[in-house]
Design a protein that fits this description.
With 292 residues, this protein is α/β, with parallel strands linked by helices. 41% of the residues lie in helices and 17% in strands. An 8-stranded mixed beta sheet has the order 1-2-4-3-5-6-7-8, sandwiched between helices. The protein is globular. This is Alpha/beta hydrolase.
């Protein structure tokens, strides 16, 4: 897939006491895209021009990442602060609702946001992150998932993870993408360099890891979950080495209107590794929702 890198524009928005950077393309209803770790807005490069045909697409750098502000205090990464950021983006851009799309950590925040502000979310699209209740269940009772998530416990150590990521020109960033991807051609050298450069910005690594050091435990030890009324699509790359496919089973108990589309031979980096398939499934979901 070829990407016209000059088709979108860069901007910033002041929300919740900080300034967030985002890229945007298109006009119309708002589609807001939230990335995961260790990414930034660039992880949506295959989706932005596709959906800009029908939406105002906004792909944000989450707080702590790339060109957004990077508060260093751990309390700045409380889930409620992250939710306020998203509410501020939607209303600050002049919208009353959006199609909310999230992958990895962005997906976790999207789950929480949809429960907290369902009136602001017309449709929810989640990529390779389970419902928080299912994730908590997996960490409590599934030894295989505990092993897969063991890296998150390492991330709790102060400073050492930062040093590991910095070692040998941020080799750990390259390894995270290249070793997990089924299609080794999904990430070009330029893509890897972009991710390394974003992580190398002053204060970024600690801020990025603070999601694990603060918000992680809110995912595991949280509340009772009601049934979500927002129509939801889950897209899942089946070869995710960090999150088992079984974490998706039973999600329908928590979402009234749920579709799940599995993509075989695809890693955690689903929207970058299989962009055409992801875009197709998103289109089908959005079109069906409009027709219903």
């Amino acid at each position: 897939m070829t990407i016209a890198l000059e088709t979108w524009t860069h901007n910033t928005i002041a929300v919740n006491g900080i300034t967030l950077h985002y890229v945007t393309q298109g006009e119309g209803p708002l589609m807001l895209m939230l990335h995961g770790f260790p990414e930034f807005w660039y992880s949506w490069r295959h989706q932005i021009p596709e959906f800009a045909q029908d939406y105002k697409v906004v792909a944000v750098d989450m707080r702590g990442y790339n060109d957004s502000d990077k508060p260093q205090d751990l309390s700045a990464y409380h889930i409620q602060e992250l939710i306020k950021d998203i509410e501020g983006i939607i209303t600050g851009l002049g919208y009353e609702s959006c199609v909310l799309v999230g992958h990895d950590w962005g997906g976790a925040i999207a789950w929480y946001f949809a429960y907290s502000y369902p009136r602001l979310v017309e449709k929810l699209i989640i990529l390779n992150i389970p419902h928080p209740a299912k994730f908590a269940e997996g960490l409590r009772s599934n030894p295989q998932q505990i092993l897969k998530s063991s890296y998150t416990f390492f991330f709790q150590i102060p400073l050492v993870p930062e040093l590991l990521f910095q070692f040998n020109d941020y080799q750990a960033i390259e390894t995270a993408f290249q070793t997990q991807a089924v299609d080794k051609n999904a990430f070009s050298p330029a893509d890897i360099t972009a991710y390394k450069n974003a992580a190398a910005k002053r204060g970024a690594l600690t801020a990025m890891l603070n999601y694990y050091r603060k918000t992680m435990w809110e995912l595991v030890f949280d509340k009772e979950w009601n049934v979500l009324e927002v129509p939801t699509l889950m897209i899942w790359g089946e070869n995710d080495t960090a999150l088992g496919k079984e974490l998706t089973y039973g999600t329908e108990s928590y979402v009234r209107n749920l579709q799940i589309r599995y993509i075989p031979n695809c890693s955690h980096w689903v929207q970058q590794e299989q962009p055409e398939r992801v875009n197709q499934y998103m289109r089908e979901f959005l079109s069906a929702s409009l027709e219903s």
